[in-house]
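Here is one record:
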Amino acid sequence: WSRKLVGHTSCVNALTFSPDGRWLASAGDDPCVQLWDFNQEELSKPAWTFFGPRANVFTLAFSASGRYLYSGDTRDDIFQYDISHLNSPMGHARDGLNSPSWSDTQHEDSIRAISCHPEQDQLLLSAAEDGCIILHDMREQPQHSRSQCKLQHDAEFTCVQYHPTMTHIFATSDNRGQLCLRDVRMAFGPLSQRSEHGGIVHKYVTTIARQGTPRMANPEVNSLVFDREGRRLAVTMLHHLPTLYSLNDPYPIATFSGKHLPNGELVLPGDRTYSNCCTMKHGSFGGLGSDRDSYYANGSDDFRTYLWKVPEECALLEARSVVEYSDWAKNRRPGELGYASSILGPRYVPVDLSTPLARLTGHESIVNTALIHPYRPYILTAGIERYIRLHSPTSSSPCTEPLELTPKAVRTVETSSPSTREAFLRAMGVMDDPASDDEDGDGGSIALFDHILRQEGNADVFSIHPWEPDPDEESSEQSMDTDDDDSDDEVGGISLY
């Protein structure tokens, strides 16, 4: 069952929940930030609208206490909103409370991610396409040297996330496929005290090999997310599958795919299933009413949202296979994917979780974001359209009227389409779309992304992201812990537990 949450006037790119699960924040191309109150008896419209961004918003984050909400946009701006007044009876009578309480313009390119410290409201990390991660400390005086709070990289950062329990550890990803853990104490501060590699204490292997293909691939990592215990992290890769890692293990333990239907039947050749070729995707862990993150959800280019049940870590490790290069080169299983840290190294073949628990429908175009409520059995999805869809396993809901059955049919992409110029003009609202009579007014955006799907939907990761070994990377890998022994709980000399 599901329903639409309507409040935006353009694509919805970012969703996040406050720590207590009361507030859902949403933002996109409007650009404005909407706040939805899940304590209401009737969740029919946003409880509050915040202004400030002047460009598309792609990231939102709540502080540890839930008092502050942060947004980051493509004009390099970060805005802070103080929502503590919303709990006051006089809050709605005061003026100017929908404006930012603080802003920052230190970045020089689009903000891709913001992550708040899991315990302290005054600390947050921001990552941008300028290759810079900034540690913002609200306790410091203005005269504090901001250069001591910057980490500069030679590639575009695509995500940053604090570890939920080890507050000195954070994870980063970039558009070259590098995924790693870093130590705040080694990454920031005076240059003389920083580590040579930007505070990296652990690297994850993201380089993919395919039997029968001579080259390897290193796909861009769109985003990453920890489970609430911090023992696992899932990453979304462009032109590849969502991939699951155990915190201390450099090699993945599972991939998520849609090769089978939820009933176990194989998806027929030619039928659309999970893919990520066209937009930046953001997935999430959750318990669907439980305090254990047993599920993972992610949006797809086939206009669906996929929900997988995640087995126990020990079962996934036991099922993962390791194939030596000499055997791999014999091509006994053409097309099989494995992960390797070097061209001649062993291939680690993780479990493919190919049967999703559910495939959620209800969207007419690409789903970019899937967010599981931290405490209630809800999944929120958003993407190219201007609405958010609230999904529930039951028709009754404490915060909204009875939900309706979600339409099961999924729209197909037409083989013929308007020109790229016409699709772009329709998406921008400059040209009317005579073929679109949808009540939501998303016809232009849908036409544009249909065209992008036709152009990029069948791209192969091995042609888009070919991997060439870097001599410096190869030498640094010699000191990287790639032992599959889970008894070692130290990475790079930093105790993780």
